[in-house]
């Protein structure tokens, strides 16, 4: 578990700095750049800096001076969102890292498109041709995974005032795209003239935060500070990241995950071929999970119940996705509490290779373990074994590792 405080702002590079300050090796970010296939174009480095009286880590994402070629025009005109998404989807990264990174880039593109009256497909990212955005986003998602952060809680984001100069001209603070991304996200005014939260920072918080506010029974084991480029003296331009270790006395492995919204609808006049698309649309709109189940309605008509759960701030978007992608004329919405097991992902070595296993804990004991399907499928194919054999081997190794 982690708790993020945007003390003096939040941006992509500030998030990377906080992760490195918490113990993420800079080599991990460099490996992420390599996995994205852009190591020949950009490099990442970390350095210590002082922000007012606070020592923090500054991560720099910069263009390699020796890189030249037919793609140089990208640096001037920027890469499109679709191109960045394609890079992420082709990267050799964990599936969940790819999925969350793509969701963040889409959020950014949709926000920029709305405020500039264009389409997400026509949005282009500037600076290093969009590669800084790419590295910030994927580096943050991969960094949290490598540090074992299962849940991220976030304090309200501080919002400054004034004006900024950018590629789109002179804009008010927060920038319109940032303001769009902050909808549904708790904020608070900051006595700072200038941009405290960037669009990338807002998108990271909106997509990655499981809840807002300091979690109960939170005991921090590590704290790190990531620095930004601004000097807001006396307010330090840093973000603070707390990582929890041990749990408070009396706390259990069943952690309250806050309130979720359940959205559902019954349909009896819809082709089954459309159901997967509706579920995918709900997930893309921010649903934590979505599914369908057969039911019987009045007069004995067979029908489907389509249901999704999401964080309350995503409820409107998920409801709109279901209404758009199904034949329903309305959806039901209810708020519920959700609790989940403390979980972690471990890699176990089997005779079929390395397999990742999700482990859930209850009362300090392992309550459940589930091997990753894709790992088992790949191992089975490579070794000519059955999927069942690989599953059994992975579970046995997970039990041995307890």
Low-confidence stretches: 67-77, 246-257
Strand content: 25-35%
Q: Look at the structure and give the mean pLDDT.
A: 85
- What's the structural domain tally? 3
- For the CA atoms, what is the radius of gyration? 22 Å
DSSP summary: helix tally: 12
What structural category arises from helix and sheet content?
alpha+beta
Spatial order of the strands forming the largest sheet: 15-16-14-17-18-19
- Estimate the global geometry from the Cα principal axes: globular
Please describe the biggest sheet, giving its number of strands, its sense, and whether it closes into a barrel: 6 strands, antiparallel
Count of extended strands: 19
Fraction of helical residues: 25-40%
Distance between the termini: 20 Å
Features:
single chain, alpha+beta, 12 helices, 3 domains, five-stranded mixed beta sheet, 19 strands, six-stranded antiparallel beta sheet
Structure, described:
Strand 17 (332-350) and strand 18 (353-362) form a beta hairpin. Helices cover 33% and strands 34% of the residues. The chain has three domains: 2-244, no CATH class; 255-330, 2-Layer Sandwich (Alpha-Beta Plaits), CATH 3.30.70; 341-400, mk0293 like domain (Ubiquitin-like (UB roll)), CATH 3.10.20. A six-stranded antiparallel sheet has the order 15-16-14-17-18-19, with helices on both faces. A five-stranded mixed sheet has the order 11-6-1-13-12. Strands 2-3 form a two-stranded antiparallel sheet. It has 402 residues and is of the alpha+beta class.
């Amino acid at each position: 578990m982690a708790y993020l405080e945007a003390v003096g702002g939040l941006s992509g590079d500030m998030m990377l700095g906080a992760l490195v300050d918490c113990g993420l090796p800079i080599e991990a970010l460099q490996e992420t750049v390599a996995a994205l296939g852009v190591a020949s174009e950009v490099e990442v480095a970390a350095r210590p800096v002082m922000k007012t009286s606070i020592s923090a880590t500054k991560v720099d994402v910069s263009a390699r001076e020796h890189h030249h070629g037919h793609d140089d025009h990208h640096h001037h005109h920027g890469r499109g969102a679709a191109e960045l998404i394609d890079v992420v989807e082709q990267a050799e990264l964990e599936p969940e890292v790819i999925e969350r990174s793509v969701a963040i880039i889409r959020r950014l593109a949709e926000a920029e498109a709305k405020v500039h009256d264009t389409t997400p497909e026509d949005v282009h990212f500037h600076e290093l041709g969009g590669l800084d955005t790419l590295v910030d986003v994927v580096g943050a998602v991969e960094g949290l995974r490598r540090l074992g952060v299962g849940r991220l809680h976030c304090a309200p984001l501080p919002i400054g005032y004034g004006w900024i100069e950018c590629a789109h001209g002179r804009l008010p603070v927060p920038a319109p795209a940032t303001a769009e991304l902050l909808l549904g996200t708790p904020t608070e005014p900051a006595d700072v003239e200038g941009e405290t939260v960037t669009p990338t920072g807002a998108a990271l918080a909106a997509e990655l935060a499981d809840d807002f506010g300091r979690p109960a029974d939170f005991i921090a084991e590590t704290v790190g500070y990531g620095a930004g480029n601004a000097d807001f003296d006396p307010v330090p331009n840093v973000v603070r990241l707390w990582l929890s270790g041990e749990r408070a006395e009396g706390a259990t492995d069943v952690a309250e995950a806050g309130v979720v919204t359940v959205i559902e609808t019954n349909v009896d006049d819809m082709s089954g071929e459309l159901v997967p698309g509706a579920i995918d649309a709900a997930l893309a709109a921010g649903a934590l999970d979505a599914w369908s189940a057969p039911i019987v309605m009045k007069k004995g008509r067979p029908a489907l119940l389509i249901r999704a759960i999401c964080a309350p701030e995503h409820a409107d978007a998920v409801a709109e996705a279901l209404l758009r992608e199904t034949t329903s004329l309305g959806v039901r919405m209810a708020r519920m509490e959700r609790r989940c097991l403390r979980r972690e992902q471990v890699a176990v070595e089997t005779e079929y290779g390395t397999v990742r296993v999700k482990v859930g804990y209850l009362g300090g004991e392992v309550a459940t373990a589930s091997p990753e399907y894709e790992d088992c499928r790949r191992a089975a194919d490579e070794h000519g074994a059955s999927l069942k054999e690989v599953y059994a081997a992975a579970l046995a190794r997970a039990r041995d590792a307890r």
